[in-house]
Write a structure and sequence with these properties.
- There is one protein chain.
- The protein contains two helices and three strands.
- It has about 90 residues and is of the alpha+beta class.
- The protein starts with 11 loop residues before the first strand and ends in a 17-residue tail after the last helix.
- Strands 1-3-2 form a three-stranded antiparallel β-sheet, covered by helices on one side.
- The protein has one domain: 2-Layer Sandwich (Alpha-Beta Plaits), CATH 3.30.70.
Length: about 90
């Protein structure tokens, strides 16, 4: 008899990191819309250091190990955050 592993017993893996709280929430929403549960693990509580302090302010998006491959696939299909939108770029197809 096959039984699914309890999500609370699965290892969590980081699928995305950012220093921007809003970007972290947007990525979490994209994953939620795809049916993937995630959590944001902020290394420093925002009330402790309200300013962006580099690695100290990093926000990691964590998913269960079993969902990591699908989450990575979904996130890889998002527009590159370092590239500006190019309305006049080459057409798809």
């Amino acid at each position: 008899m096959a039984r699914s592993q309890d999500p609370s017993q699965q290892k969590l893996v980081t699928v995305f990191s950012t220093q921007d709280e809003m970007e972290a929430r947007m990525v979490q929403e994209v994953l939620a819309n795809a049916g993937i549960e995630s959590m944001i693990n902020s290394e420093v509580p925002p009330s402790l250091f309200p300013m962006n302090l580099g690695e100290l302010a990093r926000k990691d998006i964590l998913v269960t190990e079993s969902a990591a491959a699908e989450a990575a696939r979904i996130l890889s299909e998002l527009p590159d955050r370092d590239q500006p939108d190019s309305a006049g770029g080459p057409a798809d197809g």
